[in-house]
Predict the 3D structure of the following.
Amino acid sequence: MPSISKLTSAVAVISLMSLGNPSIAKAEIVGTLTMGIVVDQLFSQLNGTINKAMAEGDYLLARASMEAKDAIEAWRLANTDLINKTFNEVKATTREIFAKADALTVQANDHAANRLETIQQIGENANQIIADIPIIGGKTYITRYGPRIVVGGTGETIVTVKGVSLGEADPQLTIGTTLVPRISLTQQEAQFALSNLSIPVEERTISRQALKFSYKVNSSNVIRYLFGTKEVVDRDLALIVFPKVLGTYDYSTVVKNDVRVEEPFTQNLGQFKARNDRVYKVATPKDGWKWDLEKPLEVLQGHGEAGRCEGKDMNKSSENGISVFARLDEFRSGGNLFGIIKKDGYVSCSLRGTIYKMVSTEGPGPAKKGDIVWHSDLPLDRPDTTVRMTMFVKTFDNRDLTVDGDRSDKLFNAKVSSGLLLVTPKIPDDIAE
């Protein structure tokens, strides 16, 4: 079967530029192809987009493509009378939205630079396809459902299925063989409470999980229809399931340490001189240093006469200075006509001990490697003396992130608080229904 986006033909070719948006590539759909073929080809292209996006961890593109595929399926089920008509025969608005869907799918597969814009436009075009579906009384079909992305584990997820004439169709939802409780039902909407524990989850890669949505419709067999017999229609609702591990991290810190440096030191106090008295002097350490009062302090005596270095007075001392005292008497120095000559005693004293100072250095602090998982905060030690911290994160969707302070990402928040870096996982806003 020829590729819709690339075919050219001498017969009618419908060309469209994305409704005035030049960023979307030109799309071409051969006008003589039936809508059934157009839908099948779009399904094939979207399946390729979904598979590639899942392999690359691009859950936003996978989700948008799934929405587009489901919208086209809803259109097909509601327009069975148009399936055998050619593309040229359907109304202009239908041609436009299908041509745009084709163009956007090609653009997504070509890894266009404006990826986020492409994803947004795929979603918007899916809405246009849904809006193109006619409301047919008594006919039941699904128009959309959500959420399409879930996180396994604790709690529950409310699955909402929207459609037409659901009220009398007795819709049921199962995961595997387990029936999911239905919590509300109207003509346009059915809601189910899905236990997250029932969802199979991969360890490190995103995966797909199918829910089976079943509803009852009138039998297509004339006899059975006359007897009111219902037929059950099954529809798979695909979910994108986030892995158990949000990402891996490598955390390290550099902290400031005050290292104590010691050395022996002798302070020369010079000469003490007096007569029949006690003299005090303060022995100071070197600038920027302090005496270690826990280590021995020794008073040393040098040359002198009628004097002695007696000791130290610790009551008048501190780390910044030690009070040392000496006893000075008098001595005779001969005589003259006037009598005996007496002089002041003197002595040289020193103080020997240990001095110290604190020197600031930087060195490795707390470090850790591991996994960030859903439903569990990750506290990491961050001392108040931290100079620098770095956390490298590799997320499951193949993004490399660096955290060096407060940071808000679509998958987690990182907050610096007293003594901690707290990493809190979060389900991103852009996947919420």
Notes: The mean pLDDT is 84. The CA atoms of residues 58 and 240 lie 11 Å apart.
